[in-house]
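Researcher: Here's a chain I'd like modeled. Treat it as a single chain, no partners, no ligands.
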Amino acid sequence: MSSKFDLVVIGGGSGGVACARRAAEYNAKVAIIESHRFGGTCVIRGCIPKKLMMYAGDIGNTAFHAGDFGWIGLEPAKISHEIGTWTSKKNIEISRLEKIYEDLLKTSGVELIKGSAVVVNKNEVKVGDRHYLSKNLVIAVGGTPNLNQINGLENALTSDGILDLDETPGRVGILGSGYIATEFASILNNLGIEVSLLFRADMPLKGFDKDIRIRLMNHMVDSGINVHPACKFHAIEKTPEGTKVRLTDRTFHFDTVLNALGRSPNTKGLFVPGQSPAIGSKGQIIVDENNKSSIPEVFAIGDVTDRINLTPVAIAEGRAVAENLFNKNSLKVDYNQIASAVFTSPPIGTIGLTEEAVKKSKNTHRIYESEFNPLKKSFTSKKTKAFYKLIVEDKSDKLVGAHIFGDDAPEIIQTLAIAFKAGAKKSHLDDTMAVHPTGAEELVLMRKPSRII
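Model: Modeled as a single isolated chain. Structure tokens:
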């Protein structure tokens, strides 16, 4: 038995949902297939629950320092976190969001299909014993945790599991140095859990500005996280006592190990042999600037293309595909000047070029920096300095990079991204009146460059 559609979207995450709804706005007959829960990685088992867990840690930190601001009765030694309570509340909230996603799709006229999809050919998808025919396909299946980098990695939890704990995980070893690893290291540490971060590189967050990476690593050490760079992993072994992480030169013993060694495009088993579009070395679907694969009727968006793996990018790509297919548009996503955030403690906001990148340029650049103790930390015994950095192309005076390490960095970088997209110059910041007292006022108060490169 088969049904016919104008568009079938495989993957009910943020990008797929955005694509399906936009296509339906133009009266296309649309179906969306999801194997797990509508909302995808970001809503169900990624960004949203992770940030809810981050808030739990932040609230604990605030309570811990309440006495510094005159509050009495809150004894730090008696403050502890019940992770099972958090998980129960998280599950309720995620179910609420999942229903919103489903209702939005239904209201838009999109047919929802639950199950694992297999692409039979460019116009046909199979789910169980049902076949769905479509003029066009959009692949939006996202990514999946890497499980083949170390022997025994199946013995470690992924980020899915760490967000579903019913009881304290005990001593946690986190493998990796990217977004997921550094964020969960900070979050779990703030929840009072003993955390060790093990990674191959010399510093976390490869590709970020070096000044940010140094400050994050130093702060992690200062906050009690056991940081182990330059690790050479050999194997992960389950034992009656917990989990062993064996390196080539030593062994670590943990109660729980979190695999945060990155994610890969989720294309395994998605296509009938011989029917897939061009696939890259990491399993990613190769697409052009219109998100079209090597098969003209098959498009791919989001993390499955392994380009800029951010939820808002996937949403923009999905909407662009729908506009081009059903509204006779010729939209292309602009991948320049995309801001991003890392929800460590304190968090990071970044946009544009790093200092390491501009050093390779033939042009001259001015580097502006400001490092200070935030007013919020004035009374606390542990002070974490905020750090702001601007990179300016000297001849044009144009802002080409901004990197922030400190409270509210994600909120600040979102606003600053508007200025970057508008082509703002350093002189525009200089001409802007400060909002006082704020940390963000440093952006308009940095007058003299720290160095010129």
